[in-house]
Amino acid sequence: MSVFIDTSAILAILDAADHRHNQAENAWTALMSSDEEIITSNYILVETTSLLHSRFGTAAVRQFTDIMVPTLTVYWVDESLHNIAAAVVTASPNRGPSLVDCVSFEIIRRQRIDSVFAYDRHFEKMGYSLIGQGN
Question: Which among 70, 96, 98, 100 is most buried, taking Cβ atoms within 10 Å?
Fold first, then answer.
């Protein structure tokens, strides 16, 4: 089985000041001791790196890159996948999921991923089984 991890979960794991930090850290520890494959995309890596750098600096990026990224299976977005996600974003009549979220949704569909580790309401609205939502 596989779990897709979103930027929102990664930030909650790494930011001790995040109100979901403890539950995210517990969920991450459980994932690390399981047989679950943890999948993300290179778009999530870019988004997360950018946010970590702007909020916390280079040391946080280094921690993410050196410690967390090696534990992830990274799905690399090609032109076709990017175009599918961009079409979904531009077809939306109002402000909906981001391009990165739409890429994630398509990867989850293509890879038949069972669960998502995220704190982004768009994943919940899509009806995915979310982990890390405990007390």
Answer: 100
Single out the residue of 71, 65, 30 nearest to residue 45, CA to CA.
65
Assign domain 2-76+115-131 to its CATH superfamily: 5'-nuclease (3.40.50.1010)
pLDDT one-digit tens code per residue, 3-61: 999 999 999 999 999 999 999 999 999 999 999 999 999 999 999 999 999 999 999 99
Sheet with strand 129-131: strands edge to edge: 73-75, 37-41, 2-5, 115-117, 129-131
The reported pTM is 0.93
Q: Beta-carbon neighbour count of residue 121 at 10 Å?
A: 10
Euclidean distance between CA atoms 14 and 18, whole angstroms:
9
pLDDT in tens, 50-101: 999 999 999 999 999 999 999 999 999 999 999 999 999 998 877 778 999 9
What letter does residue 20 receive in the DSSP assignment? Answer: T
